[in-house]
Design a protein that fits this description.
With about 425 residues, the chain is an alpha/beta fold. It has helices spanning about 5-10, 30, 55-65, 85-90, 110-120, 140-145, 165-180, 190-200, 210-220, 240-250, 355-360, 395-405, and strands at about 20, 25, 45-50, 70-75, 95, 100-105, 125, 135-140, 160, 185, 205-210, 230-235, 255-260, 260-265, 265-270, 270-275, 280-285, 290-295, 295-300, 305-310, 320-330, 335-340, 345, 350, 365-375, 380-390, 415-420. Helices cover about 25% and strands about 30% of the residues. A hairpin with a 2-residue loop joins strand 18 and strand 19. It is globular and about 75 Å long. The two termini are about 45 Å apart.
């Protein structure tokens, strides 16, 4: 049975809306029966980029594409400046934008894509968040990905805060569809707009990020503007700090704060927080195993990606994925205390290479930078920086060093600066 047919059966006797979008309450039957865009140029196995959002047209198009057994690349208008890179990296055949499907010509292929085509399975490509490197194209077998939703689970009226191109946003959409829930699309992702939408539509669950929660605290909206209908706030995608969580729990005692943990490479893993005000969490779920090696969390998941389309595999021969997260353990619970990758240790003071790179990139005429640790007989390590200037002009080392000293703590200032091209591999990853 096709997915649209299955969902129509699930929602057949439901007399409340599935989606609230732009002040309209829409039942699933209304979404499924709306006028659809022309997909005639698309064939099974195509890689299709869908630029959309959590609106009726995008949702229906997404479901129809799944039934066509294509490999879907969900994108948003917010990342438009990176779309050409995404199209190239994911080997996109068709672009759907503004309700129009356009075929894109290329002669590339990939073994993972051919594997999905041979099984007649739908696929899903998500992109990692790029920092100083380029985002990685993460390919999932979507047919297998959907099987986790076959087990019925309870739902809450949820605002879909996470974006259309984020695994958390897609997960919220599918979980709500399969379990007859209600999802509310936010008008804007600002503190005032999100909280007002939650109040207006009696939203019970807000999946969000630590940064947004800190913005809520800084805006003065907590607690007076936080509606009483909110029962659960989940936070993930980055590390939460304890003071922020403590303040939220103190000011909003009626809300259950739950940490989430996941990476697009691993699919969705289930998490149980030790307590509302604790950053310790238990990670598991069906087909998920965890272990800690040298204080680094590793995960093995049956719902993991097939692999990267533009980078080498991160899994070891036994299928374990090194999360690069340094953790503290308390029985079966873990707390993430930082990342091991790119940590530089100068005289016992540890910091991330990206902190130096972020400052260096603010200097005029700098195209790329790469900070790395070098062994030092006195301090253990020191920072060295490779800088690639723009074609517009050179970088004066003395003035550049003065700029870095004015912006960085003393132990973070590079001891050596090399002006040369930064080595970028063919998969757009710095080597």
């Amino acid at each position: 049975m096709k997915l649209l047919e299955k969902l129509n059966e699930i929602w057949e006797r439901v007399d409340y809306p599935f989606l609230i979008h732009e002040d309209c309450e829409l039942r699933f039957s209304q979404i499924a029966s709306q006028h659809s865009i022309d997909l005639n140029i698309i064939k099974s196995g195509d890689v299709v980029a869908l630029v959309g959002d959590f609106n009726p047209s995008s949702i229906l198009t997404l479901l129809r594409l799944i039934d066509l057994k294509v490999i879907i690349v969900p994108l948003t208008v917010e990342t438009a400046n990176e779309h050409e890179y995404f199209f190239d990296s994911a080997l996109v055949d068709v672009i759907i934008r503004g309700g129009i499907a356009t075929r894109r010509q290329h002669d590339k292929t990939h073994e993972y894509i051919e594997f999905l085509r041979s099984k007649n399975h739908a696929g899903l490509v998500l992109f990692s968040t790029g920092t100083t490197g380029r985002p990685k194209a993460i390919l999932h077998d979507l047919t297998l990905f959907l099987k986790r939703f076959e087990t019925p689970r309870p739902t809450l009226r949820t605002i879909n805060f996470l974006l259309f191109d984020h695994i958390g946003g897609i997960n919220t959409l599918l979980h709500t569809l399969f379990n007859k829930g209600v999802v509310v699309a936010p008008e804007a992702r600002t503190v005032d707009s999100v909280l007002e939408t939650c109040r207006k539509y009696e939203v019970e669950a807000l999946p969000t990020t630590p940064t947004f929660l800190r913005m809520m605290l800084m805006s003065g909206a907590v607690p007076d503007k936080v509606p009483s209908c909110l029962k659960v706030i989940t936070y993930g995608t980055e590390r939460m700090d304890q003071p922020t969580l403590d303040d939220l729990c103190l000011l909003l005692p009626h809300i259950d704060f739950r940490q989430t943990f996941g990476m697009s490479e691993l699919g969705i893993v289930r998490v149980k927080s030790e307590a509302c005000n604790s950053l310790f969490m238990k990670i598991g779920g069906e087909g998920v195993e965890t272990r800690v090696v040298d204080n680094i969390l590793q995960i093995r998941s049956e719902s993991r990606m097939l692999g990267y389309l533009n980078a080498s595999s991160p899994f070891d021969p036994e299928g374990w994925y090194d999360t690069k997260d340094v953790v503290e353990s308390k029985g079966d619970y873990y707390k993430v205390v930082g990342r091991i990758s790119d940590v530089i240790n100068v005289g016992g003071l540890k910091f991330m290479a990206s902190e130096v790179e972020r400052v260096a990139l603010d200097y005029p005429n700098v195209t790329f930078v790469k900070a790395h640790a070098k062994q030092n007989p006195f301090t253990g390590q020191h920072v060295e920086l490779v800088v690639q200037p723009t074609t517009a002009g050179m970088v004066d080392k003395d003035s550049f060093m003065a700029f870095l000293r004015s912006k960085l703590q003393p132990h973070m200032v590079p001891k050596r600066i090399l002006i040369e091209d930064v080595n970028v591999g063919h998969r757009f990853k710095r080597n």
